[in-house]
Design brief:
The protein is an alpha/beta fold. It folds into 2 domains: 181 residues, 3-Layer(aba) Sandwich (Rossmann fold); 113 residues, Homeodomain-like (Arc Repressor Mutant, subunit A, Orthogonal Bundle), CATH 1.10.10.60. The chain has a 6-stranded mixed β-sheet with strand order 2-1-5-6-10-9, with helices on both faces. Strand 1, helix 1 and strand 2 form a beta-alpha-beta unit. The longest helix is centred in the last third of the chain and has 19 residues. It is globular and about 60 Å long. The relative contact order is 0.09.
Length: 318
Amino acid sequence: MSHAQRPERVVVLALDGVYPFELGIPSRVLGAADGRYEVLTCTVDGRPVRTAADFTVTAAHGPEALETAGTVVIAAVTPSRISAALTDAATAALARVPPTARLLSICTGAFVLAAAGLLDGRRATTHWQLTDVFRRTFPQVTLDPDVLFVHDGRILTSAGAASGVDVCLHLIREDHGSELANAVARRCVVPPFRDGGQAQYIEQPVPRTGAASTAATRAWALERLGEPLTLADLAAHAGMSPRTFARRFDDEVGISPGRWLIQQRVARARHLLEASDLPVDRIAGQVGFATGASLRQHLHASIGVSPGAYRRTFRAAR
């Protein structure tokens, strides 16, 4: 999108019991995207709402703002405040959203989307502590508790708290490319892309005392994505046996070393497709895929499009 085009309107729905941090994420992250988004905040009735903290917030807009939204964000609310009355009011408000608009939930906001029937038959995520109750309440939703966010068609769901930052950066990356998303991440002093999923924050937030970390080896590998790295190579760099390294890697990152390498190679390939005119086969070689066909396979598995289609989309966005 060029700067001459109108910014996309993003409307954040603040419900009773909203977490202040999550409520502010869209404005802070999307608002740093060089004017590409206009972020408004509304409530279901135009009245102030109580937050999860010791203060209330007054939004500038009522539910009518949802009628002009290109994207609607449902901010997280305290689980104890999620009631039939709250979800009924939110469902009525969401009925005003244009059918082409994207819907994005942060943390417990997924409960609101699910209660409105908007996640039926879809894949989604929410905070890992709430996965059991979510599955019991909404068995028609395919819940993935291990990821930071899910993008399924026009609906995006994210896990707890800071994953709202991840999904907003993903939105910028999808709309305008990795260059702008990376610039926004730098402005907000956050990583542009976090590896792995929620598992890394559940079982072992920090390495055990005296335990070696795989962080240095991950940094080493990122400088050598074009090389045919194996589990044995990674383990040798970390000074561990392959079995110990694989176990520790999964504890820290939440996925296997092989899957992580593929993610990093796909991410690097996406950047090169956006930012360069290099042929697909050459990009494949630079990021560590043996052939252009292998890159095409992994890119399609990751985001559902071919390298050529991906490149055309982001060239058109400019």
